[in-house]
Each structure stands twice: as structure tokens, then as C-alpha cells.
Design a protein that fits this description.
Length: 159
Amino acid sequence: MNDTLQKDELRELYREVILDHARKPRNFGRLDDATHTAEGINPLCGDKLRLYLIVDAEQTVVSVGFEGSGCAISMASASLLTETVTRLSVEDADACFRTVTQRLTQANDGASATQETDLSRLRALDGVREYPSRVKCATLAWHALHAALKQSDSKATTE
Ligand code: FES
């Protein structure tokens, strides 16, 4: 298989992953017993989402949920986030925020701050780098994650 074909196939696969998560967001909904929560706002479009986390006494993220509305990329990214950080330590979850925002804003894959964490499902977001105006859509939920982990209830913007 030549490189171009492989890249096209990967791009199509990632597009399908984004569409699947946007149409059927995983872990969509409020967590009434959340220990941490934050709202993420993209001032460019006004879209918002709220992220809910349940962190246990061992500082492990045991459950993640979100609600809100936004474009397909923001919803898919939030959905992928919930699957990625569930069962991670607070430290590793916050490292995911750094890694994802670096990956989306740098030309290369960015330094992985979470060598132990499987971020392979997030490869679907890499194509967003080709559309700089959509990077804020993809990072919205991750900014909310970072804010939620820092405080028990806060607001985050992509600016
Ligand atoms: Fe608003 Fe994407 S257009 S978050």
C-alpha cells in the first residue's frame, strides 16, 4: 500500500470516528454527584459545554460526563475526552489536556506528557490541525477539563 493511499484511508477512518462520536456522544449527560465541574466556552461562536468529573479519594477520575451543544468537532472531542480520561489519575488526566492542546496547535504530534496513557483514539482529532479555525472547537472540552481539575467549579474559555 502506498503512503498516499494509507493517509487517505486514515483520514477517512478518523472522519468516521469524529462523525460517530458527534452523532452518538459517549457519556453525554450531567453527573449529579460530580466532585469537579467546569464550563467551557468558545467565545468565537458562543458554544458552551459543561464537564462533570467524579474524582475518588485516591485522586482517580472514576466517571466523566458532559452536556451542552456545539459543532460536531466539539461534541466529538468531548465524547473522546470522556473515554480517554476515565480511570486516569488526576495528574495523568491533566497531562492529557497539555498533550492534546500541544498536538492540535503544533505542526508535529507535540510532546506526549502521558507516555503511559493510551491516546490512540485521539488520533482522530489530528486532522483538525489542517483547519486552524476549528482547533478551538476541538480543544473546548479539554480546557474545561483543565479548569475542572484545578478547581471544583470554574469556567474556561478557549481564548
Ligand atoms: Fe462552536 Fe465549534 S463552532 S465549538
